[in-house]
Amino acid sequence: xxxxxxxxxxxxxxxxxxxxxxxxxxxxxxxxxxxxxxxxxxxxxxxxxxxxxxxxxxxxxxxxxxxxxxxxxxxxxxxxxxxxxxxxxxxxxxxxxxxxxxxxxxxxxxxxxxxxxxxxxxxxxxxxxxxxxxxxxxxxxxxxxxxxxxxxxxxxxxxxxxxxxxxxxxxxxxxxxxxxxxxxxxxxxxxxxxxxxxxxxxxxxxxxxxxxxxxxxxxxxxxxxxxxxxxxxxxxxxxxxxxxxxxxxxxxxxxxxxxxxxxxxxxxxxxxxxxxxxxxxxxxxxxxxxxxxxxxxxxxxxxxxxxxxxxxxxxxxxxxxxxxxxxxxxxxxxxxxxxxxxxxxxxxxxxxxxxxxxxxxxxxxxxxxxxxxxxxxxxxxxxxxxxxxxxxxxxxxxxxxxx
Amino acid sequence: xxxxxxxxxxxxxxxxxxxxxxxxxxxxxxxxxxxxxxxxxxxxxxxxxxxxxxxxxxxxxxxxxxxxxxxxxxxxxxxxxxxxxxxxxxxxxxxxxxxxxxxxxxxxxxxxxxxxxxxxxxxxxxxxxxxxxxxxxxxxxxxxxxxxxxxxxxxxxxxxxxxxxxxxxxxxxxxxxxxxxxxxxxxxxxxxxxxxxxxxxxxxxxxxxxxxxxxxxxxxxxxxxxxxxxxxxxxxxxxxxxxxxxxxxxxxxxxxxxxxxxxxxxxxxx
Lengths: 403, 270
Prior knowledge:
The complex is a heterodimer of chains A (403) and B (270).
Chain A: H1 2-9, H2 11-30, H3 43-48, H4 57-74, H5 77-85, E1 94-96, H6 103-109, E2 118-121, H7 128-149, E3 151-158, E4 162-164, E5 171-176, E6 188-198, E7 206-214, E8 221-226, E9 231-233, E10 236-252, E11 256-261, E12 263-266, E13 269-275, E14 281-288, E15 301-307, E16 310-314, E17 319-322, E18 325-342, H8 346-363, E19 368-372, E20 381-385, H9 389-399
Antiparallel strand pairs in A: 1-20, 2-19, 3-5, 3-18, 4-6, 6-7, 7-8, 9-10, 10-11, 10-18, 12-13, 13-14, 14-15, 15-16, 17-18, 19-20
Helix pairs in contact in A: 1-4, 2-4, 4-7, 7-8
Chain B: H1 2-26, H2 29-57, H3 65-86, H4 94-109, H5 125-156, H6 167-200, H7 208-230, H8 234-258, H9 265-268
């Protein structure tokens, strides 16, 4: 057991693990097959898992080893820092050789303060390294927990449409951690207004939506969302995504309103394939005067349906045969895409980040503890500094010639 | 007016380079004083040109290569000047800072571009933090590398660059700048993660620059471990500092030029 702990605490292992993670992550960032539209991964990369570098077993083992090594190195470090603060300095502490100069005055000029035998400089900053490593442990642990519980998905809405995220078929592209709830969020979302090219001062045109969000047993909440920031309702956050297109709303007697979302075929043409109520395929097509996604707007629209080998022009309010009966076009509008996320434990991830940064901040201060030399010790003072020991000795030698 | 101020700054940085060269190559004592004064003076028109640009385009210096490099140069000179107030011995680093500033300004102006609008996802205070700390990170690691370069020169010829501090002090300053750049890089990464979460609901997406920044942070961690655990100093650490600078340059400038990433716009346009 003690051999395992010694191995985990060894600097060589720590550096090897960090080096491996840096190299692996670097390949993950740079490999051509990782880039969008890149070539397929070569066989050797697939064999070692580099075709999916950040979920590969090698990477996960590296992270586990990093956690174990960091834990072993951090364990007991708190007691060492407390001891150093009391003046019980480690053997590696710098020894200022005996000299004719006033060592207390020299140390005071170097920023050390105190009245007794022990002088300190930025003493709280001695905790920097410990805090940084604790933050790293918290970060690794909470990222794993957060991933296990995280849940996200995508849904499309047309203007005026209301949908329940929990309803079958609303959400697609779902990504769920192994411990995340299986049930979709019980939230109703309606797209009240959608402008795909809204101009906000200083920014280029972009999507802007007004959403009505209803949680069970609560009053509806109307919020505006753009791609700069999402909105939170209950434990769910909803974000505006980029994809958009034309949408056609029509009414089928006895079946109510239906919305068809058309996807772009050419810059000026969009279409959607549907199945009518009797199971026959039909295709709705919209052709625009200008680019459908152009900031100037699509201009005049030509709409038709292709079914059973015929093409029929459609106008708002005009009935047209659809299945066994007739349907009626109500409106042409646009659809927008949204994503939802549920990310419990996110506070833990950012606590880890915060502790790491706090530790780094403390490390920026040149903390140190000095103990004045004792009779027979052969040193004017023994000094522990987080850095700069050789510079301190050089300054001391310059300040007072050796005795 | 903006151009006049920009070129005034370039001229002052060029004159500062000449003054520092006179100090380093010919031992002209006035060179150090004049070089420092010229660099400090250059900051004024430089600030003016950045401010006018900001007013003109309506956003901070982060949307084109010209804006990014020009602001990076301003931060480099400003951080060096502030550092000299804390540690006077760092003044001699002006011999590296002045030509760096001059060359960076040359690179900036070679890619002059005007873009008045930014994407809507730039509407975030986390972006300001993210970019601000990226600039501070670049300045800090460049100054660490300057200390390392000065260490190597002084180690070979102790009488060279006479007003620079001892090799022990230079090694200490390089370590100090490295720690500070490690912190700034960490803040940059975390602010970017918070910005991503605000806009997309995820704090990490393994984007090439995001990943490259993480690799750089890990490499800095390795270098700092060599210092702390293995007590590496001097020549080996000077070269490792250059390696760290290399990773920083790749992350901040090279990846955005070579690899398609969501960060492309600031280096290669939208």
